[in-house]
């Protein structure tokens, strides 16, 4: 419940620029993230870029794919099978190292470009700087987030 | 002191080439001097044994804290400081700071060294940002940084003399081991079994950091330094295939039946490539085959052989790497001058559970035999003839070990129980031990006086579900999800005395949590070790009876040591919870549902430790 209220608050506070879309910033240094617009190539990714909304939340197919991706990229190794935490922090409770991760834009930014405290960048082009073919597409990040949110434990 | 000065003077006369061998002698003398603790496990044989006996069973209850030193660094403080000529050298977890403390002047800091490491390196450390300590030799302190850099510092001033990059962090490799000085070489390992790194062990020349030799854990014989005479006395260790597939082998419902000795074909060559059968997840599986080497290395000067173990094959999903996956999960004996392998024995062929074999190999003698004993993650305690690798004893360390019924001594092959075979997208239940092993890196100690080993233990079981995962250079490549829970004893740890000839425990104490601190045993028959719920304990080597304990600031994952200063005996241990055992703690896991991975079983640790655990050195005396 806590989390829902939080998201609602943030949604009001964020300065949306209408059709111009949202602007993404790095969790490491708050600098703008340069992600080529062409990468937002699915309806869900396009919607996210314009409104900051993750339309995959609650979508069973997306959640299933999100789980696969979470395993494929060994997120499980550090965060546990469901995101419950292991060597990396819990991703499904309401305690965050970076409070913005409670919100779908914030968690997208963290997964895409990483943190300064042990979380590597996972977005395509950010993960392996000299090999842009590696890493998650925006659409895949949204699916992973849908998977994580589906496992969220309320307090 | 006199002999040292004389030797140094002589070395000046004889020139550089002979200095190196004399320098090694200086370290060997320090190892023999019980006032010092000059090598990670005190001596070449990895015994963790000291003849100091001022602290005895009669007075140990009077032990009091003499002094402590907060390292200012959080998370896992594994390993132990070195004590050399009245100076204690203390290391920390990431960023691997080093302090030289003057024992003659109230532990005042003589010098300190603060490596500059990229914070992103922490993302490469699968199991917390630990560092297992320093090495000493030739007047230098050696630090193996997490970022792969091996640094030689002037022991007197802390000035950097040379450094060298040991592993490639871009490929996901890192380092956590202590550098071990053996003769005129600095031996150091490789971490990255969870990143698809093709690991190796390296020997650098102590003088200038030039590479003397490097031996890979997988791949062609030439790159593994395997040549003529390898496994001469036990050619069956070099068999192409140790199992036959049952029900299709590498798929749900499949398993592996051990072959008998007359069914094996040996000796074979190039097993480091040929036991990675197609189809693999990768073109040539061995190229990302893992085999990390981050343990404690021992050395027999008479045989000129060093001993170490290799870790898991990449990835944890066994179905995508059919074959025995040599030489992961192997104990190697190598000539320390050339690196050439004398023998190699694979403990867990075609691993399905992450049972790394990098735990310490302790060298000892009994009945006129030169022996080596190793307590493997897979739950068996092994004793070998260390001259040639002949397996003499392989027994379960605790009856809860269930993945194999026994090890066939004729072949050395474990008889796997099909019930606990793991396969992709199938969640195998009730496997004991867990991937943490019956014992992990926390080293055991051996007393030549009692003839027994003192072994810190985990008592944790697991579920294990291999999953598909993608190899990307520099990224984790794990391929399984695990959950862990307390074993049938209802606790998560233990500590035992072990008879290495009989392969039996002599006494066994349960511990609430994994005993993840390394053991020390003294000639007064006292064993010291630390626990995750912050106790530093002394127990009777004969009976296991608790003689003394003291609660320190954070859980202990470091190794107990002893030394003397101005005629007085001290015992000490690093505290600072972390490592694989403490990850739950350090990352602030606290939910009821944090029931998975190492977090689950250890959840109650949060009631005993602040997170993240702060590092400190704790020193005690009468």
Describe the structure.
The complex is a heterodimer of chains A (155) and B (622). Chain A is an all-alpha fold. Chain A has one domain (2-17, 25-150): Cytochrome Bc1 Complex, Chain D, domain 2 (Orthogonal Bundle), CATH 1.10.760. Chain A has helices at residues 2-13, 43-51, 60-72, 75-79, 104-113, 138-150. Residues 1-19 of chain A have low confidence and may be disordered. In chain B, a hairpin with a 2-residue loop joins strand 11 (180-182) and strand 12. By secondary structure, chain B is mostly beta strands. Chain B has a five-stranded mixed β-sheet with strand order 1-34-35-36-37, with no helix packed on it. A four-stranded antiparallel β-sheet of chain B has the order 2-40-39-38, with no helix packed on it. Chain B has a four-stranded antiparallel β-sheet with strand order 3-4-5-6, with no helix packed on it. Chain B has a single domain (2-621), classed as Methanol Dehydrogenase, Chain A (8 Propeller). Chain B starts with a helix and ends with a strand. In chain B, 8% of the residues lie in helices and 35% in strands. The longest helix of chain B is centred in the first third of the chain and has 17 residues, at 16-32. In chain B, helix 1 (2-14) runs antiparallel to helix 2 (16-32). Chain B has six helices and 40 strands. Classes of the chains: A mainly alpha (155), B mainly beta (622). At the A-B interface, helix 3 and helix 4 of A face strand 31, helix 5 and helix 6 of B.
